[in-house]
Design the sequence.
């Protein structure tokens, strides 16, 4: 019966051409396409982010809690950008000393959030017998433009480890300005300048990292003002004992000036690039929304249409059953089952699908009863088509556009439900969803600390997708059912 | 009337079946999959018991006492009984409001370890917040929806449509987070956390509670009233397009009576029943919002039971309460619908 | 039968100002109705019948409005009435209407009694037992059990509802009753009974009735005058018997030829090829010319005048006197 297919095609075309007149629907559809592109690009542009979200080492080089890089344009003040240096600006080799110098130009109101140093070097001894208990001495100093230098590491010994039967070993020293030693250093540096007329703040009350780049005045502890100019970070290594040759490895050493702004959406407390997480959030939102709504609509179609087609006691039984199912509350069942079965996202998808089709099946059945009375369905029956054939070939295509519209309206509910469960600790730990990002933001008190970017973007993602699907679904409904249109 | 009594019976029977089925499903899931948890519960109780034993006892006596106590607890919970027996017992106990005792250890600061007492301690605060919010947003929603329906196609109507689509796309608790960012962090108008409640008495106490309530209340109303208004507006406009409205106008019925009489009365069954339903059901949906604001209600209890204490009896209790609210809500809505709409016949759906 | 003119419509023009252009739903309609008489209005759907009815009631829905012309009901000019005056002085008092579509015509949540009492309450201030008594009398008049007064609409059959609507339309004894397809939703037997009722009532109450329908065979039986409408025009107006026997306008001729007749053997039913025009952009000249077999050059260019031929008004170039 090919003419039926023609009818169906024609109907699709007419719906499509009318849809073009729905401005909100078009806006919604464009957003969906945008999100879809992001979602498809996620595995390429943000590969491994999904599985590696909780992997701290993966994000080490990023700044902590950096604002989006465009924050300077909309908010007062300028923010230090993130700056990773793999080569020093100067490398001075002297007889018993090598020094790496990194220049840093501070011209920002919001100064660096961190300085990370990964010093990696080598040292050799004359003979294998000496290749034991050898140290180098390390000094890390921040030379400030006002001449008040801060020495973070002052002549600390770092042991050299030699591979077996070799005379050349390596040493590594990692340093962070956020470490408690460095914070103590900064606090005592600040104390030297502190105005005695002002009460001395406790260490817990101040942000030490601002002191490093603050004007050395009486307010340095209570209200540090940025000191602009050129800073030099020097890493100095001296040999001890039997060490003859030594140096800093330029390829493996690295200095990271932790910025205050990063990427499109900033970073979170765990230094993760929120942009990359957001992309995966988009992907998962579409996956869970799509899978749940498509499968729910499919079940609802089959159930509703079967009920409508057979009528009689079959219909009666199926409707009674459905009524009982509709009485089952979604939220408690989700909580208890996820809690006990484990918080896999696929269990969530399965559960939501199992409970998601009930209401729609009821509506589809009542429409199906109207369709069944259409003459050509009767004709098809008279021609001897089987029940299954009449349902799938004749009745379902009639109602499909409506079902698609309803499916679109279901997507935001699924996404919001998943996000809510994530806040309750019932999110999948192996995936990055917008809900997970928000639940982590909540867990880290992002709202109370004013970390707006961490809170806003995942939520905007949810809202955007929800808006897009509702707008599209409603426009589709209006096109399909002109009675709903207002003039 | 016998017909309406039959309707009442049928609806009630339906609600009862649903309640039993759901509790049975929950008990089934709980019992078949919770052996591990059973061990956990027993171990914790035994541990507590060991702590309280007389230190003078010999190791043998100790071991014997612990063994006896363990067996006593296992018998108490019936963990040795066949699985079906356990499922039916849990179902029966839950349905008779015997919700068991919290395994949290500190009972969330409530004096009594009975789950029902704990829930009764937290529930009134949820009701205080949510009932107030529900009354506000339902009334506001119906009023705005009516207004928009009367001026369908106008700027107000279009703005409402956009607003309601946007707010229905937002998780309520996310709006709560934004509210904290803006009104607590940036502007400093409200406290960032609702708990603990003010340590004051009398008038100052209520003022303090109100101050803490303002943001969660505003959030709930903001997120929910648009959708309610839009729903009301749609129901009213669809009635306004019906022929009998035109007939009423032709008869010379004043416009006020056309709107508040013919239209609203016809549209009221779905509006009223969905309002009742929303009223009862959204307590579950607002739990996460409570968590965000640190409001010490059911949401707070659920989060602690889930994440901190892994307190299964309490989780079951909350889940059961939500289920009851949902089923009772549906039942009430059904009855009310039958009462409000003369067309509803026994056993029949509303024919549209 | 009185000779009092109860409705005098002159050059009534109603347009809808939509975003897609001006819909000229009714242009220059003129006719008169005397007490105890009835007019039948016939035409295809979308020809302006309903627009005319709503114009008479002053109930044209925006974006439509009466552009020009005059409507005098019992000597009172109603086009200039404010909405409030129209409601209190005109609707149901002077002109009542039986709407099309019996299923959906009564508010489902009010009893029959409530809905019948409304006009009495808002126009006459009558309430309680007095109103009930009147309503029951009218229910009896349309051959219904007065006890239906206590029922809800969903408990009634389509025929019962239609009679209730008719009874409600007669309650205030208006000068004019408009009946828009009063019987289409009903089966033939009920239809015949209601038509007979209406004929009887018209005599008893001495008011004017306007029947609107697409079914000419009913009109011929019940109406004294016929108005044939096409694309917003009254193309022919005159005594029903004359038009029925000897239609003048080519459109009327086609319309009457299309009525199936039981007693005559006919080879085939006539039908009118083509569809009625879009009223946002009606054809030039005579609006019927694209479908008219007798059209000539002038028809495509000049709008025809109305000509009176043998007591029948006809808007067609064929009857132009040289």
Sequence:
């Amino acid at each position: 019966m090919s003419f039926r297919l023609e009818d169906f095609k024609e109907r699709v075309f007419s719906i499509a051409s009318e849809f073009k007149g729905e401005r909100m629907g078009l806006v919604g559809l464009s957003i969906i396409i945008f999100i879809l592109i992001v979602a498809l690009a996620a595995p390429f542009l943000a590969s491994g982010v999904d599985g590696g979200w909780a992997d701290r080492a993966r994000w080490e080089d990023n700044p902590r809690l950096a604002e989006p890089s465009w924050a300077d344009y909309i908010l007062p003040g300028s923010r230090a950008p993130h700056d990773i240096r793999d080569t020093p600006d100067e490398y001075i080799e002297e007889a018993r000393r090598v020094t790496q110098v990194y220049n840093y130009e501070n011209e920002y109101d919001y100064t660096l959030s961190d300085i990370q140093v990964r010093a990696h070097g080598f040292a050799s001894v004359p003979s294998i017998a000496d290749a034991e208990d050898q140290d180098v001495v390390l000094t890390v100093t921040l030379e400030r433009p006002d001449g008040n230098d801060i020495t973070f590491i002052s002549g600390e010994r770092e042991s050299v480890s030699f591979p077996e039967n070799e005379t050349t070993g390596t040493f590594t020293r990692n340093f962070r300005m956020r470490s408690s030693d460095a914070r103590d250093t900064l606090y005592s540096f600040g104390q030297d300048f502190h105005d005695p007329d002002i009460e001395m703040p406790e260490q817990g009350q101040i942000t030490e990292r601002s002191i490093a780049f603050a004007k050395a005045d009486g307010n340095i502890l209570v209200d540090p003002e940025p000191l602009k100019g050129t800073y030099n970070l020097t890493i100095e290594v001296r040999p001890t004992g039997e060490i003859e040759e030594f140096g800093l490895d330029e390829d493996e050493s690295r200095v990271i000036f932790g910025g205050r702004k990063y990427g499109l959406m900033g970073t979170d407390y765990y230094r993760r690039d929120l942009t990359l997480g957001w992309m995966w959030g988009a992907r998962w939102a579409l996956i869970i929304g799509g899978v749940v709504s498509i499968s729910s609509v499919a079940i609802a179609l089959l159930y509703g249409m079967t009920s409508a087609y057979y009528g009689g006691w079959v219909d009666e039984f199926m409707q009674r059953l459905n009524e009982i199912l509709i009485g089952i509350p979604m939220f408690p069942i989700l909580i208890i089952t996820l809690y006990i079965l484990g918080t896999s996202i696929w269990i969530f998808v399965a559960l939501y699908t199992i409970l998601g089709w009930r209401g729609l099946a009821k509506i589809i059945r009542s429409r199906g009863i109207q369709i069944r009375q259409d003459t050509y369905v009767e004709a098809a029956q008279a021609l001897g088509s089987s029940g299954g054939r009449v349902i799938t070939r004749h009745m379902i295509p009639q109602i499909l556009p409506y079902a698609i519209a309803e499916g679109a309206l279901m997507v935001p509910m699924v996404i919001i439900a998943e996000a809510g469960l994530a806040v309750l600790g019932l999110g999948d730990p192996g995936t990055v969803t917008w809900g997970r990002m928000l639940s982590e933001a909540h867990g880290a008190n992002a709202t109370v600390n004013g970390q707006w970017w961490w809170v806003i973007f995942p939520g905007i993602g949810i809202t955007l997708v929800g808006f897009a699907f509702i707008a599209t679904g409603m426009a589709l409904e209006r096109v399909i059912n002109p009675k709903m249109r207002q003039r | 009337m016998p017909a309406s009594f039959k309707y009442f019976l049928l609806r009630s029977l339906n609600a009862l079946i649903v309640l039993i089925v759901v509790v049975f499903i929950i008990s089934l899931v709980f019992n078949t999959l919770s052996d591990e948890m059973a061990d956990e519960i027993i171990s914790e109780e035994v541990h507590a018991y060991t702590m309280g034993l007389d230190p003078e006892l010999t190791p043998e006596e100790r071991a014997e006492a612990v063994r006896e106590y363990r067996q006593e607890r296992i018998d108490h919970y019936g963990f040795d009984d066949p699985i079906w027996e356990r499922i039916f017992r849990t179902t029966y106990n839950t349905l008779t409001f015997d919700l068991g005792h919290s395994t949290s250890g500190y009972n969330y600061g409530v004096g009594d370890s009975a789950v029902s007492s704990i829930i009764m301690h937290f529930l009134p605060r949820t009701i205080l917040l949510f009932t107030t919010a529900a009354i506000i947003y339902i009334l506001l929603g119906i009023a705005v929806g009516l207004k928009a329906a009367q001026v369908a196609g106008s700027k107000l109507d279009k703005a409402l449509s956009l607003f309601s689509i946007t707010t229905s796309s937002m998780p309520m608790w996310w709006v709560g987070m934004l509210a904290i960012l803006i009104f607590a962090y940036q502007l400093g108008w409200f406290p960032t956390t609702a708990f603990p409640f003010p340590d004051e008495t009398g008038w100052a106490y209520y003022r303090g509670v109100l101050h803490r309530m303002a943001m969660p209340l505003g959030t709930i109303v903001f997120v929910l009233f648009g959708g309610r208004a839009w729903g009301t507006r749609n129901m009213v406009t669809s009635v306004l397009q019906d022929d009998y409205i035109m007939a009423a106008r032709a008869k010379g019925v004043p416009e006020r009576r056309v709107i508040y009489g013919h239209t609203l009365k016809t549209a009221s069954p779905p509006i009223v029943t969905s309002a009742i339903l929303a009223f009862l059901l959204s307590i579950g949906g607002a739990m996460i919002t409570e968590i965000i604001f640190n409001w010490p209600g059911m949401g707070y209890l659920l989060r602690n039971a889930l994440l901190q204490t892994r307190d299964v009896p309490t989780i079951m209790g909350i889940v059961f309460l939500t289920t009851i609210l949902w089923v009772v809500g549906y039942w009430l809505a059904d009855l009310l619908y039958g009462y409000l709409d003369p067309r509803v016949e026994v056993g029949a759906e509303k024919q549209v | 039968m009185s000779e009092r003119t109860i409705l005098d419509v002159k050059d009534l023009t109603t347009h809808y100002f939509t975003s897609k252009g001006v819909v000229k739903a009714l242009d220059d309609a003129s006719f008169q109705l005397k007490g105890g008489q009835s007019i039948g209005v016939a035409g295809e759907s979308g020809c302006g019948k309903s627009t005319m009815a709503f114009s008479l009631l002053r109930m044209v829905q925006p974006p439509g409005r009466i552009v020009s012309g005059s409507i005098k009901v019992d000597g009172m000019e109603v086009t200039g009435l404010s909405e409030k005056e129209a409601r209190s002085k005109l609707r149901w008092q002077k002109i009542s209407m039986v709407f099309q579509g019996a299923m959906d015509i009564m508010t489902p949540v009010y009893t029959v009694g409530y809905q019948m009492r409304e006009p009495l309450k808002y126009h006459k201030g009558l309430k309680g037992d007095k109103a009930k008594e009147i309503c029951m009398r009218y229910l009896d008049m349309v051959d219904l059990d007065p006890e239906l007064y206590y029922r809800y609409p969903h408990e009634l059959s389509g025929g019962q509802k239609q009679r209730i609507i008719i009874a409600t339309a007669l309650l205030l004894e208006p000068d004019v009753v408009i009946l828009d397809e009063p019987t289409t939703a009903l089966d033939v037997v009920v239809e015949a009974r209601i038509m007979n009722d209406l004929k009887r009532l018209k005599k008893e109450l001495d008011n004017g009735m306007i029947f609107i329908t697409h079914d000419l065979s009913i009109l011929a039986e019940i109406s004294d005058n016929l108005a044939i409408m096409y694309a917003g025009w009254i193309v022919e107006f005159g005594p029903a018997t004359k038009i029925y026997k000897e239609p003048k306008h080519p459109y009327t001729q086609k319309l009457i030829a299309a009525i199936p007749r039981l007693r005559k053997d006919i080879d085939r039913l006539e039908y009118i090829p083509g569809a009625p025009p879009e009223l946002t952009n009606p054809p030039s000249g005579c609006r019927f010319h694209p479908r008219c077999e007798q059209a000539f050059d002038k028809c495509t260019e000049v709008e025809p005048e109305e000509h009176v031929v043998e007591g029948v008004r006809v808007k067609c170039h064929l009857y132009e006197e040289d």
Remarks:
- Chain A has 14 helices and ten strands.
- Residues 483-487 of chain A have pLDDT under 50 and may be disordered.
- Chain A has two domains: 5-54+274-486, 77-258.
- The two ends of chain A are 37 Å apart (CA to CA).
